[in-house]
Amino acid sequence: MTNDATNALVSVGWVVDRLDDFQRDDPSFRLVEVDIDPNNYDEGHIPGALKIDWKTQLQDSTRFDVPTKAAFEELLGSLGISEESTVVLYGDMMNWFAAHAYWLLTYYGHEDVRLLNGGRDRWVDQDAPLTDEIPQFPERSYHVTAPNRSIRADQPDVMDAIEREASLVDVRTPEEYRGEILAPPGWNEGVQRGGHIPGAVNVPWSQVVDGEGRFRSADELREIYDDAGIESMDEIITYCRIGERSALTWFVLHELLGYETVRNYYGSWVEWGNTVGAPIEKGQRAEIRRE
To answer: Does 191 qualify as catalytic in the annotation?
Structure first.
């Protein structure tokens, strides 16, 4: 497995040892659950954990963008989080939206944010404690200085990356990549065209986790991306359908493997596939451009 001692990733045991800290009014430690299924939290969550609804709190649906600076400050402050808090995130579906929340906190400059390896399912499988008690912490004043634009890509950045033959990583399923389906089964498609961004290679997000939802070892992860022609010194842009699965891949590349220049395309395929004139490719993966 990947090193659970890394600042970006913590184990079930690490959280268990600090449950008292997460349940105190002291804002030094805060635990947050971010699920696809909002009912999970109500059925039982880690003691001291707070809940974030990704649909209503991690996006501005009117602007189709990240929450505004003011909305983000209000959200974290309402959860009793300060700029100095160690924030640990976890969720279902092997941390899809927990990783998205991690990326968003990093984008807005939070210094100490971590992800629970294996997420909610790993916690439950280990018979670690759950509760239905909802913690109440005093609100805090939270202040964002400025967004970290170096980890975000927008459509003009992707257009430029195509011209410069930068590394584009499509983390969706092969069926989505080839244009055979527009979204995973059961998900709202929200896009008019199938396919992938020209030049993108397909490295599905599911390859980076094992059968228990934990991240594979660093050596295994490097081999996966090496085989796809993605190297540590590349300029890399990840994308999926709406940016949450690609946030997980961004986490792997940037936080676990230490690749320096990695950006997550926030608009991802929903934006690209609905943009008039945006070029697409269909079918098998693009050839790896390596000399």
So the answer is: no
Measured CA to CA, the distance from residue 133 to residue 48 in angstroms comes to 8
Q: Are 37 and 29 in contact, with CB atoms under 8 Å apart?
A: no
pLDDT above 70 (res 102): yes
pLDDT digits (tens, 9 = 90+) for 128-149: 999 999 999 999 999 999 999 9
Domains of the chain: 9-147 (3.40.250.10), 150-272 (3.40.250.10)
**Are 45 and 133 within 8 A, CB to CB?**
no
Largest pairwise CA distance in the chain? 58
- Catalytic one of 191, 240, 242, 247: 240
Contacts of 244 (CB under 8 A, 6+ apart): 54, 96, 97, 99, 100
> Tokens standing for 175?
């069926």
Work out the burial of residue 87: count CB atoms within 10 Å of its CB; fewer than 13 is exposed, 13-18 middle, 19 or more buried: buried
Closest CA to 202 of 228, 170, 179, 173: 170
**Closest listed residue to residue 47, CA positions, set 58, 57, 34, 33:** 33
175: DSSP letter: H
Q: Which residue has the tokens 């934006």?
A: 271
Pick the residue with more confidence: 218 or 190?
Answer: 218
Residue 291 in this model has a pLDDT that exceeds 60: no
Which pTM does this prediction carry? 0.95
For the record, the structure tokens of 247 come out as 């946030």
Rounded Cα–Cα distance for residues 99 and 91 (Å): 9
Structure tokens at 225: 């991306």
Buried b (16+ CB within 10 A) or exposed e, 60-72: eeeeeebbeeeeb
**Beta bridge pairs of residue 90:** 33
Token pair 């913590």 in the structure block, residue: 10
Taking the C-alpha atoms of residue 167 and residue 288, their distance in angstroms, rounded to an integer, is: 9
- Among the listed residues 143, 141, 125, 153, the one whose alpha carbon sits nearest the alpha carbon of residue 238: 153
